[in-house]
Write a sequence for this structure.
């Protein structure tokens, strides 16, 4: 009904940014080209037109990369199963989270052979995750509902991250990292044209106050940088003992790409690569202070010479 009212002009939303959000939620932009869609959503998020011809900011350049840097390996990068094979061959199995199995359908999973604790997730989506901390109390029906819903999603349609478009929907079971009383931090190393420049630490996901984020430079100095609506942690983050190794790994994995974020977990001094991220927040989240959007944008070199070098 709301969709019909908007289309007919009966329901008019005066705020253009809010109007675009509503239209996107109603999937009214589903048939737009990627460029048209990204243009509308960029305006929705930042209140200004995107400059695809001469992008300057980080978020502009992320959108530009979605349209112009379409290497086939990116589809493997975002596949949560295939990326394990890539990392294992390039760096070694010790850097991947141990995997118990991969299936096409929920009904294929033999839960009797899985350990008491594990994580289920879909390979092609974001958010389709189920954590089992004890098989005796595991809600199988709830897990099935979450996983089957995720299997039907095509994450490409959400913000047009094209590498997700052709990822085969599957289910994997992984080792549960940490313990019930252990807070696990994410270390997300941001690499610009093959150079690690800063690390984002995500903490307190399961606390009452919710997720906190802190950015550090390579010397582990805290940066005056945050995402809107996300607070810094009240905890003091110690530099991981193997931080220099994490930077080296990130440099190796990102050396042929204009931007790549390498996401790590550190458990008992072991480091695991969770995933590789091409488009943080899909390029639709700002920074505080705002000038960081320009600073980070300057760190990505999209010149013809640099891009050709990446493809060599």
């Amino acid at each position: 009904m709301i969709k019909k009212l908007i289309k007919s002009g009966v329901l008019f939303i005066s705020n253009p940014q809010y109007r675009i959000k509503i239209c996107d939620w109603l999937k009214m932009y589903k048939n737009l080209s990627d460029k048209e869609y990204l243009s509308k959503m960029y305006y929705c998020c930042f209140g200004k037109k995107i400059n695809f011809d001469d992008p300057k900011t980080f978020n502009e350049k992320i959108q530009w990369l979605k349209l112009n840097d379409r290497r086939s390996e990116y589809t493997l990068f975002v596949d949560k199963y295939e990326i394990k094979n890539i990392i294992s061959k390039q760096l070694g199995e010790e850097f991947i989270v141990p995997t118990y199995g991969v299936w096409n359908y929920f009904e294929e999973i033999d839960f009797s052979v899985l350990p008491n604790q594990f994580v289920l997730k879909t390979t092609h989506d974001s958010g389709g995750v189920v954590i089992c901390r004890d098989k005796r109390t595991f809600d199988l029906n709830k897990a099935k509902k979450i996983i089957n819903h995720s299997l039907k999603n095509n994450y490409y349609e959400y913000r047009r991250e094209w590498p997700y478009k052709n990822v085969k929907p599957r289910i994997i079971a992984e080792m549960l990292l940490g313990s019930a009383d252990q807070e696990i931090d994410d270390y997300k190393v941001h690499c610009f044209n093959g150079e690690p420049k800063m690390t984002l630490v995500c903490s307190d996901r399961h606390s009452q106050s919710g997720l906190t984020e802190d950015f550090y430079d390579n010397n582990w100095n805290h940066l005056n940088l945050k995402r809107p609506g996300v607070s810094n942690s009240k905890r003091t983050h110690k530099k991981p003992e193997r931080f220099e190794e994490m930077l080296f790994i990130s440099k190796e994995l990102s050396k042929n790409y204009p931007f790549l974020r390498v996401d790590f977990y550190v458990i008992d001094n072991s480091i695991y690569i969770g995933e590789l991220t091409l488009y943080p927040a899909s390029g639709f989240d700002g920074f505080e202070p705002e000038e960081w959007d320009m600073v980070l944008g300057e760190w990505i070199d999209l010149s013809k010479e640099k891009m050709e070098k990446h493809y060599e």
